[in-house]
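Notes to self after the call with IL:
- keep both proteins in one doc
- input above output, always
- annotate only the second one for now

Protein 1:
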Amino acid sequence: LLLPFVLWGCVGFAAACSNENDCSLNGDCVHGVCKCDSAWTGAVCDMLNFQPAANLSAIRGVYNQTEASWGGYPIFDGKVWHLFHAQMLNSCPLSSWETNSVVVRSTAAQPNGPYQMQEIVLPQFAHNPTIRVLPNGTYALFFIGGWGTDAQNCHSSSISSKSLRNENHVQQPNCSAYAWPKSCGTAMPGPNGDTCGHSPLNAGCGIALATSESLYGPWRVSRVRIQNRWESSRLYCAFTNPSPLVLANGSLLLAFNGGYCDGRLETVGLAAAPSIDGPWNLASPNPLLMDDNGSSIHSCEDPFVWQDRRGFHLLVHDFKQQSRYAFSADGRDWQLSPHAPYNCTVHLADGSSVDAPGCGNRPHLVFDQASGRPDMNHPIWLINGAMRTSDNAPSADSFTLFRPLA
């Protein structure tokens, strides 16, 4: 009776694998067992493997008493790290983001900071930035927004009301930026023609792009319009939260959120362009991720996409589990892991832990640069937007969280 019990117990500890796909493309299958890369753990290598952070200061990349921040992405110039991140103006909280968010460049000696603000790169409204380096050395800074707003003033007890320019187009009855079924027709309002723009349009979306030959600017801003969006039944409107992937040949993929105008769906799609100049088209008319039952579209936001030697990977902010991970060998067919790759408990080197509520938002991975360029096979830090809990700073209620990976 002992042998069957032992065999059953072994199955419980490690899932059998036959190839690296069974290891979530984050490890090798060795004698039927997944051998995970250092940054990943779990029976099938689908959970991030964190090191304990040295102390609270080590996880607080952008953290101050007056200005709320909300995630971003750093670029290393060989000497200094430049973090391009969202920050709220005038000591306003995160809830002011639709009027007060700007893109800021901050610098630090280490990838996790602490970062010091250097300049406002893009004025309000500009939110959820992420930056990449193109093969020719140009910097491409994707963000949402790109239209002017009247920022709230939170220095005083009274907060000014919004006074936004109205770009509302003539709309059919029962058709609005927040409810635009395909029966409303292709003439969607907004500067991108996707229902996004100044209030009363959907101010929480609309992808734009800023490019520069220098991290110090000047920046040239243009709109990102997905040309064939109407070919999709679900991904034809409200494009937001871009995550670019620069391929070796200079072409690009762009993971994004879309679909909010159709039943307030939030899910992830994928666009492609032959170069940074476009044109952008949907790589597939279908959302990338399906629920665990395989029959319904998975609801999530804030994608971060990358490619390594095994294939393509995706982290998202999941509305049920905080975080989810998906992978694909070819970038077309994606498998959604059932497990959350991380939670919001941060462990410290002294054995204590702290909570970082909201930490599923704005995931980004920082990769090792020992070779002088990012090694996409070796992530070393996870970045998120998170809410403050440990001190009383109501105006700066959010910060940019960094967690070290093994």
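Protein 2 (the one to annotate):
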Amino acid sequence: MNSSLGGASLEGSQVYLGLSPRDLVLHFRHKVLILFKLILLEKKVLFYISPVNKLVGALMTVLSLFPDSSESDWETLDPSVLEDPNLKEREQLGSDQTNLFPKDSVPSESLPITVQPQANTGQVVLIPGLISGLEEDQYGMPLAIFTKGYLCLPYMALQQHHLLSDVTVRGFVAGATNILFRQQKHLSDAIVEVEEALIQIHDPELRKLLNPTTADLRFADYLVRHVTENRDDVFLDGTGWEGGDEWIRAQFAVYIHALLAATLQLDNEKILSDYGTTFVTAWKNTHNYRVWNSNKHPALAEINPNHPFQGQYSVSDMKLRFSHSVQNSERGKKIGNVMVTTSRNVVQTGKAVGQSVGGAFSSAKTAMSSWLSTFTTSTSQSLTEPPDEKP
């Protein structure tokens, strides 16, 4: 896996072959947007699942939602900023072997996989970012998220555990299969348990900040409904348009473009409230937003800054909010479990009572029929048989 990511880069969206945003939405449902926002905030996010292929697949699929993900390559970064003295000594001992490889593709058994999106050349006009160094499109994509100490580590071995607490690491999106990583909760802001589609956010303030707005819930529900309705379409199979993989990525592109455009509006408090005012405030303090904001992006003037799913509050929004609360809060999960258990017990009790009452009624009916049959037979016999005659 190291060599596949550190060697020759793939062309365009080939790097995302085998990654399915449809499956991600079907599995995480409304929580997909929370994952998206966690990475926008450059938080320390740890993905946990076994085996490795499921781990890397889930992590990279989330990253593929960021534009221009469908037109980008992932190149190996130089992780020398993370090297400790022991690693440097080993590299000096093996310097002869190191010189045999190009600088950007040196194999390493001790360093993690670190990848960085870089826009691919094509029909889209790309301009080198003045600060990020990335080739940006007219909207300033891709965002400079995985730069300046924010790392993408699709798989971490146990011996790389120290990197998560390294002072030079601002944050990370990392994957692990060893349970020891999950137990060290102080090293991360959020743990994503892929198997259970569970996102554990340790800080209550961060949980509050990421609580989806009504417009966000509508957006997530829009994705879930389209993917769910088309899941059995034999002609779709993840490669079609509406409800397909590229369609989902396009929806996230629309979302982030509108969000960026909203931050440039002068009187934008009402507009930003649909995205989450506290979230936007926190995002503006991140490295990726400051880098983006350092350049001019005139093309965003043509983008509608309003949330794609703004609108008046309705009864359906209340249902969405209740459903989200039940699925994501601890109290909601307990209430949900109690409701499911109670419902199951009521059904089972009803069946038992029904069987008991039905059985008793059936037995009584049989006994009555038998008695009536006997009575009728004996009566008929007394009427047909001639009386005994005495000799």
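Annotation: The longest strand covers residues 171-176. Residues 1-10, 75-124, 374-391 have pLDDT under 50 and may be disordered.
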